[in-house]
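testing teh design pipeline on a random one, pls ignore if ur not involved
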């Protein structure tokens, strides 16, 4: 049996990256305009001006960049806007994840109501909402809030593209291995013996 030939080149060191939150992740987690409107109508909540929120945040970022243009180089402006847009996208994504969990809890509580043998999930006393109803209302509030933040993030991303001239991408930070313990380092060294 022959051993496979090893490459004479030194193996390149691969640095893993900590993935950033993308606008696509926000869109998957937060309701779109049509869903936000259905939620608002179903629960009697305010109907948001989605386009207005998006446009306002786009103008806000563009005007901020315009005010800073004499004091920042192009690269400094790009880095600054990268961070600002990243904050908007991260906030919207966090709200979207919270909304998703709230919907799951509301669905679970509502499904339990369908089981007639569960006394603890029955409607509360007259004048009080059931736990399932409160969870549905909370999920609706979170849906409208996450949609508003999604629109703000979309406006910020559009402004970034207009100011910088490139599509916004999240900053991907190299994974910090300084927290590796002696045990982890020893394990890596031992495992490398098998390569």
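output:
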């Amino acid at each position: 049996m022959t051993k496979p030939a090893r490459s004479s080149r030194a193996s390149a060191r691969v640095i893993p990256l900590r993935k950033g939150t993308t606008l696509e992740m926000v869109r998957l987690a937060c309701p779109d305009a049509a869903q936000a409107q259905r939620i608002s109508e179903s629960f009697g909540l305010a109907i948001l001006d989605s386009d207005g929120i998006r446009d306002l945040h786009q103008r806000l970022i563009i005007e901020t960049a315009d005010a800073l243009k004499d004091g920042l180089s192009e690269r400094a402006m790009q880095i600054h806007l990268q961070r600002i847009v990243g904050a908007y996208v991260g906030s919207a994504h966090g709200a979207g994840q919270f909304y998703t969990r709230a919907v799951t809890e509301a669905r679970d509580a509502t499904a339990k109501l369908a089981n007639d043998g569960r006394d603890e999930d029955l409607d509360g006393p007259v004048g009080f909402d059931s736990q399932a109803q409160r969870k549905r209302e909370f999920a609706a509030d979170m849906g409208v809030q996450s949609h508003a933040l999604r629109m703000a993030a979309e406006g910020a991303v559009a402004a970034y593209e207009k100011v910088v001239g490139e599509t916004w991408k999240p900053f991907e930070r190299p994974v910090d291995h300084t927290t590796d313990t002696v045990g982890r380092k020893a394990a890596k060294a031992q495992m490398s013996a098998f390569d």
